[in-house]
Amino acid sequence: MLSDEFDILLAQDREQAIRLVRDLPAPPQLALVDLGLPPTPHRPQEGFRLITELLAHSPQIKIITLSGQSEESNARHARTLGAFEFVAKPCKPEHIRAELRAALIAAHSEQRAAAQSESQLGFIGDSQPIQALRSQIKLYANTPTRC
Fold first, then answer.
1. CB of 91 within 8 A of CB of 1?
2. Residues 57-110: pLDDT tens digits?
3. In what order do the strands lie in the sheet with 62-67?
4. If residue 109 lies in a helix (H) or strand (E), which one and from where to where?
5. Which of 21, 35, 55, 92 could form a disulfide with 67 if both were Cys (CB 3.0 to 4.6 A apart)?
6. Residues linked to residue 67 through DSSP beta bridges, in sequence order
7. What is the pLDDT of residues 32-47, one digit of tens each?
8. What is the DSSP string of 34-102?
9. Is the peptide bond before 90 cis (omega within 30 degrees of 0)?
């Protein structure tokens, strides 16, 4: 239902998803992650691990979590890990499509902002290590320190 607008890669479990992402020439901009993944499809732990691993590989990925386990604590935890949005099942395909579009717009806006601030950070390049370094600098730049 999404393939007319998005390039889709499917994975059956967390390990396969990580292999797929690592084998790509560039990380995807979006990921739609179901929290209930094998080997424990009725528990969210594998989905949470996948969110963490995807963002460790590429901090710029916008992750939409999809789950039938729509407890508020799962939504809150997914967002705390870095998910862009949480969608409870069952949901209409149009809702998922709208969330993916919103995440894509946010990703493009962040890329433009990063390109504009690149000269301020003094780093040239767009490789994964440089992107990760920029993200870490932005994350810790305003952290108060005591000497």
1. no
2. 888 899 999 988 778 899 999 999 999 999 998 889 899 999 999 998 888 887
3. 30-34, 62-67, 85-88
4. helix 93-121
5. 35
6. 88
7. 999 999 998 888 999 9
8. ES--TT-TTSSHHHHHHHHHHHHH-TT-EEEEEES---HHHHHHHHHHT-SEEEESS--HHHHHHHHHH
9. yes
Contact (Cβ atoms closer than 8 angstroms) between residue 93 and residue 61: no
- Tell me the C-alpha distance between 108 and 141, whole Å: 22
Pairing mode, strands 30-34 and 62-67: parallel
Here the tokens at position 3 are: 């393939």
**Is the whole-model pTM more than 0.90?**
no
**Type of residue at 138:** K
